[in-house]
Design brief:
The chain is mainly α. Helices cover about 80% and strands about 0% of the residues. The protein contains nine helices and no strands. Helix 2 packs antiparallel against helix 3, helix 3 runs antiparallel to helix 4 and helix 3 runs parallel beside helix 9. Bound molecules: retinal.
Length: about 250
């Protein structure tokens, strides 16, 4: 792929992300009013998440354009993504916990603990992201920080899968069904981030160029963000509407 094509491809995905975040913001804001008071919070958080992401994608897009038009002299600012995740990942965890209406004590424990895990996952990942990306050495700082970050990732998944299993079984059949889909979406989309993160470091081992590694990383992060924020928010909304119709 020529450098111009690679630039254009990432540019198009980032542009799509701006559209997806902006459109889903209006959607979540417009549907939240038809939910009962107690079911609204999770959908409100979805709106907040996509609004934060909308703003960051505008900045990400600008930074990509500056990087591309300067022929790489102006570096692309990856920090926008990490600041975005620092804010949105705890909110996404909170959405999932809130929409289930677990008992208050479990709810507050899960939210507090996972906010800390999410913070540590993103912060340690950022340190790794800032290291030399063309290294193919698996013992490089990038992989070591990535591994540390992954420990917190596993702790979050353990809570969202194991920690609330007993409460899920008390929910209606419909909700259990959607919840299963939600968890698959969560693991499939959140799982893309560590893979995308590693691609620049292992591109050489996979027979790809350094440019391919960078392009695939940017597209991986962008597509995962679209699925993990607007896509996930739609499933949360679906659960909230099911809850709306039931007494639980
Ligand atoms: C909307 C943004 C979301 C859901 C972002 C999620 C990000 C992750 C799950 C990132 C995880 C990482 C690892 C598990 C290891 C390597 C470093 C990270 C930060 C990419």
């Amino acid at each position: 792929m020529s450098a111009a094509d690679a630039y254009q491809l990432v540019y198009n995905f980032m542009s799509l992300a701006i559209a997806a975040m902006g459109a889903s913001f209006f959607f979540f804001v417009s549907v939240r009013g038809s939910l009962k008071e107690g079911n609204r919070m999770a959908v409100t958080l979805s709106a907040v998440v996509v609004l934060i992401a909308f703003y960051h994608y505008v900045r990400i897009f600008d930074s990509w354009v500056a990087f591309g038009t300067s022929g790489g002299a102006v570096p692309f600012n990856e920090a926008y993504r990490y600041v975005d995740w620092l804010l949105t990942v705890p909110l996404l965890v909170a959405e999932l916990v809130l929409v289930l209406k677990l008992d208050k004590k479990l709810e507050s424990t899960l939210i507090k603990r996972n906010v800390v895990y999410a913070f540590l996952m993103i912060a340690t990942g950022y340190v790794g992201e800032m290291t030399n990306i063309t290294s193919v050495d698996l013992a490089s700082p990038r992989t070591i920080w990535g591994a540390i970050s992954s420990v917190f990732f596993v702790l979050i998944l353990r809570d969202l899968f194991g920690g609330i299993d007993a409460s899920i079984k008390k929910q209606s059949k419909d909700i259990q069904g959607i919840f299963k889909i939600l968890r698959v979406v969560l693991i499939a989309t959140w799982g893309v981030y560590p893979i995308a993160y590693l691609l620049p470091a292992i591109a050489g081992n996979l027979g790809l160029t350094a440019q391919d590694g960078l392009v695939m990383k940017q597209i991986g992060y962008t597509v995962a963000d679209i699925l993990a924020k607007p896509g996930y928010g739609l499933l949360i909304w679906k659960i909230a509407t099911l809850k709306n119709g039931s007494s639980k």
